[in-house]
User: What shape does this take?
Amino acid sequence: LLQALHGSDIILRLIQRNLPHLRAVADMIHRHVAPNGIEEGFEGTFPPEGWSVSGSWVQSTDSYSGSYAAYVTDQGSTDSRLILPIYQMQTGTVITFKHSCNYASWADATDFTIEVSSSLGEEATWEVVETINYPSVNYNWEDRIVEFAQYAGQELYICLHVVNDNGAATYIDNLKLTTITCPVVENLNIH
Assistant: This one.
């Protein structure tokens, strides 16, 4: 038992002594984001510059933050895409956003997917990356994250695709498309 405690004490002292260095490395890894991302709160012109819309995506004053969000109506039948500018996918590419809805009890009549395509227009073939589940409570903003590691090395368009048949209204805010990278740490000496 004394030997086990003695070994733990040595490990504890090593951690305490090197904690500032370890914190610095963890902080660098956590905060490093590639500079070529997209951040959109839908506060300006809609659709944002470089984006495109098919269907009924519009700007809404029901937002998570700021004055506006992107919105697809719950009225009637809609097949709507909100398409981001083309993006160079890398291993750490992710999209994050806030997601809310109205008429949550009708969400079964609404499909919401994140999709990718290498082209736009009639020739575009959209591949579903992930299906997004709806919040169970109206106007309850939830965090969403979708990873694109399997598409590393490709230039692709990303779309938020909503197919609605008198189902839930869909709201999106604070969208971020980024590539999170882990920096190479060289010559790290732990004493």
Observations:
- The radius of gyration is 22 Å.
